[in-house]
Amino acid sequence: MGSRLGRRLPVMADVAREAGVSHQTVSRVLNDHPNVRSETRARVLQAIDKLGYRRNLVARALVTKRSRTLGVVSFDTTLYGPASTVYGIEQAARSAGYFVSIVSLKSIDPAGVRDALDYLADQGVDGVVVVAPQRSAARALADLPLAIPTVAVEGGQAGEVSVVSVDQVAGGRLATEHLLSLGHETVWHVSGPSDWLEAEGRVAGWRAALEQAGREAPQPLAGDWSPRSGYEAGRSLARMTDVTAVFVANDQMALGVLRAFTEQGVSVPGQVSVVGFDDIPESAYFSPPLTTISQDFDAVGRHSIEVLVRRLEDGLQERERLVVPPAFVRRASTARPPEGR
Amino acid sequence: MGSRLGRRLPVMADVAREAGVSHQTVSRVLNDHPNVRSETRARVLQAIDKLGYRRNLVARALVTKRSRTLGVVSFDTTLYGPASTVYGIEQAARSAGYFVSIVSLKSIDPAGVRDALDYLADQGVDGVVVVAPQRSAARALADLPLAIPTVAVEGGQAGEVSVVSVDQVAGGRLATEHLLSLGHETVWHVSGPSDWLEAEGRVAGWRAALEQAGREAPQPLAGDWSPRSGYEAGRSLARMTDVTAVFVANDQMALGVLRAFTEQGVSVPGQVSVVGFDDIPESAYFSPPLTTISQDFDAVGRHSIEVLVRRLEDGLQERERLVVPPAFVRRASTARPPEGR
DNA sequence: TCACTCGTTGTTAGCGTTAACACGACTTGA
DNA sequence: TCAAGTCGTGTTAACGCTAACAACGAGTGA
Q: Is residue A123 a contact partner of residue B98, using CB atoms and an 8 Å limit?
């Protein structure tokens, strides 16, 4: 298969010689140029096949100034959300004919984002998707002089970049309205870290739903997305006798909340109802199975590539914003409030 | 910042002109060539800074025939294990000065692996890490005529490729021995899909530990890593009155098992003890917190890059195999067996 | 018949870098 | 003092591809 050791890989000129044409004709065949006689084309293709020739994309990139590589900058791809988004991005990019080069950041300070973009720019990527869920990252992106077409995922409002995101506010609303509709007087909230845009959006949705129903919004408890922080919030909540419904900003923290409630003998959903966010694969098997809000990460990834490719290939200039709606998933962690609590 | 619109990016010749030297001298400065007068070097650096020059890595790759890009082929990076491994790989590669290009496969048939490698080869990667946890993928890899230096993660024995993996057999042993040491008569097993090498290794470790203790190995129940399949296995186990200890091949399935036991009124660890595998971030907050085996995915990722870079830069030819030991994590899902069961 | 167009192919000139070699100015040692 | 290094630098030629243009024969309309 063209790997006879010690021989150098065939180049276009070798194919040309084999087919008895010029290397430019080979190039034309490879690039589907219309003006090539079909007989010639066949001869070239046969030579390509015989020699096991593969076009050198680096040389091609040098002359065309396009590498057909997209960069992805993301924060901790170990987390379910980012991992799923990046997965969606990668699938979409590949099927659009682009390679994907990834940088995943431990901490997402503005300098980190800047460095990552420089790094990718050096590599010669044609465009970049930045998964920038923190406000600071989004701001950094907005302030940067962007030499390369860029799309932000969950990237806030500012700046010139296009943004694709899940409607977090709607998600927070959905969760809260569900609990209110079951008859709960009010809904408590365990939020994500305050500099995360997603956390902010969910808080806003929760607050809006309460306000609309004319209910008082209790002080939210702040977590950091980890089950551990949910557990701590859960211990606090278990001590308060007037809590009957909690909207937790992600499923992992909800797991911690459930754990704390179990330990304290608070029954879910008997005494307290709990709603999570994300719909991770595990949440259907929590005890009890978790009612939650699902985000279509895959769609987010796909859309971000669509937007980017539109800009790259059709030369679209105006900035786009695309919002993916979340979905409500009813399971067993929510019920009507208890009679006498 | 060198981004004055409408002007083309500066190239080496521009820097050379600015500094009053030849472009080759600029190249020497950039590549830390020793024979450059320090005064000249300073002048060049100043010109680089003034023009905001950045070296074109594509042109460089064309002439050096090395792209400083590594490819990663992985199966479903949405799963915690692969995601963490890929994360470790990416970090290690970047700090070794390599870019990382990712292909994540939905299904990992041999043709898929082959295509992914071809695809990356076209892009001009210098080396590849294949996360190949299925036997079929490992076999495909072993059979392939590998034009590019390749390292397999969890890749089995065959072929010429170097392999980095976690010692799954030791993990299975650890889990089983722990349960036996608590006084359980025997240990049941919920395994992963049979074509996964990891599943196979865990089964082998479990079987070996039982054999060594002179116990009968019950028929293992086969799952597919999902909480759902664990739940189903759990329902079967709950019905059998002689089960007091279960080793589940991953934490997600263990979650399903716990859920089934809870539903059937089987108390954990009161009546049945459960051990998982992986130590995902959630498992400390399961009900009860899960005793499990932790795998250092990060170390696996790092080692795979070390092996690859050794081959790339020091020209090492012999194939290496590196095994990372798993660790036992005791939590609250295991206890002595009940008296009269 | 001639001028013109069109389809097909070849020739030449880059893209921006590094490698290889050439060359003069110094040093060094006999 | 001269042959033989070193050092610092410049010149030229690739790397493998595409873009731009040139060339040529065949068809077309006047």
A: no
